[in-house]
From TrEMBL:
Regions crossing the membrane: 31-52
Entry annotated with the keyword Transmembrane helix: yes
Family annotation (InterPro entries): Vps62 (IPR009291)
Region ranges (Disordered): 1-20
Protein name: Vacuolar protein sorting-associated protein 62
Keywords: Membrane, Transmembrane, Transmembrane helix
Source organism phylogeny: Eukaryota, Fungi, Dikarya, Ascomycota, Pezizomycotina
Pfam families per UniProt: Vps62 (PF06101)
Feature: compositional bias, Basic and acidic residues: 1-10
Length: 373
């Protein structure tokens, strides 16, 4: 074809396989592109305003009859340390693998003990105060039951009920919910190359204070005391606050890293007595828990779901061995501190009817609005 005959904008003859689209097909394609463009713009707007996300949704706690929905909606998630050796444990297994004793002597003539009737031990040792659930196997032989249960990919401790959720309704919309975490063994801190403070049995907890179903403040238990924060301050997955369980000692912190707890209520990044936390694996305690209501006037527990065993909550003794005497070959003493100490008391002894979000222990209650020390 003579180039002079080409119209302006024409490039030459159209090959047979590239014939122009019919007008109706071209219009259809134009409408398609307009729709896709509008959808893309809408997607960006929703994402910008936080109404749409491509991230994996955070784990959600299940609903339980008799338990306020917000107590589970805001239930904490716990990061276990990447080097953790002693995982959350089945509470009933602690009873099955121990025997009750007073002053290193086994209490005889008892029925078979379970979490339902464990409070029968309150008839001994000054209302149970001096009763110890003593390991059937020497702790230095590393009994397997002390290792606990590694959570699965959803954060559940399969085959192990390893937490207790306790609701204290103060009235007028003020409700405290305690999330109690159980571990069969506490590995103490190493101080000047000495391992100190090991014990069988370990109860730790978070407590969230709610007003009219909305979370206000949260407490993190740490050794003899702990830290409190506003709910808005702490790290979350979705709406669920996050706790970091310290390697071995299982003290709860609001951030990952190194934590010196030499001075109560002060979390420093270095010091003499250090805990370590990190994002090893996530544990969702609410997936495998017992559920209770607590009545402050009578200091009594009721099974919230009708099936949680109340004897375990009423038991006033210690959930591990009594501190080994100095002459015991397993024991070591270092400047007045011991390698092995006595097991802890249970949830009943964690000040379930507090005035403030902190325990009433004489230490100043600081509710932080920052994650810094």
């Amino acid at each position: 074809m003579d180039d002079s005959l080409l119209e302006k904008g024409d490039l030459g003859p159209v090959p047979p396989d590239q014939e122009p689209l019919p007008r109706w097909r071209a219009a259809e394609r134009a409408i398609y592109y307009q729709i896709m463009t509008c959808l893309a713009v809408l997607f960006l707007i929703l994402q910008y305003h936080g109404l749409l996300t491509c991230a994996r949704p955070p784990p959600r706690a299940r609903q339980v009859a008799g338990v306020p929905s917000y107590a589970l909606e805001y239930a904490p998630l716990v990061w276990l340390d990447v080097q953790e050796q002693y995982f959350p444990s089945d509470i009933a297994a602690q009873v099955e693998n121990t025997h009750p004793g007073i002053n290193y002597t086994t209490i005889g003539d008892l029925p078979s003990l379970t979490l339902d009737n464990l409070d029968v031990l309150n008839s001994y040792g000054d209302d149970g105060k001096y009763v110890y659930l003593t390991s059937n196997i020497d702790v230095t032989t590393a009994p397997k039951w002390l290792d606990g249960v590694v959570p699965d990919s959803s954060g559940k401790t399969n085959g192990a009920t390893s937490a207790a959720i306790i609701v204290n309704d103060h009235g007028a919309g003020l409700v405290d919910v305690f999330y109690m975490y159980f571990y069969a063994y506490n590995l103490g801190n190493t101080v000047l190359f000495q391992e100190l403070g090991d014990h069988i049995g370990d109860w730790e907890h978070n407590m969230i204070r709610f007003q009219d179903g909305a979370p206000q403040e949260i407490w993190y238990s740490q050794h003899g005391n702990g830290e409190a924060f506003t709910y808005a301050t702490v790290e979350k997955q979705g709406v669920r606050p996050v706790a970091y369980s310290a390697r071995g000692s299982h003290a709860n912190y609001a951030i990952a890293g190194t934590h010196d707890h030499t001075i109560p209520d002060l979390n420093l990044p270095a010091g003499l007595i250090q805990d370590y936390t990190s994002q090893g694996m996530i544990w969702d305690p609410a997936q495998s828990a017992y559920f209770y209501s607590y009545d402050a006037a009578s200091a009594s527990f009721t099974s919230a779901d009708g099936i949680s065993p109340t004897g375990a909550m009423r038991f006033r003794g210690q959930w591990g061995d009594e501190q080994y005497p100095d002459k015991d070959p397993r024991q070591k003493k270092f400047f007045g501190f011991y390698k092995f100490v006595s097991g802890p008391t249970g949830p009943w002894d964690k000040q379930l009817n507090r005035t403030k979000v902190c325990p009433d222990n004489g230490i100043l209650c600081i509710v932080r609005d920052s994650l810094s020390p």
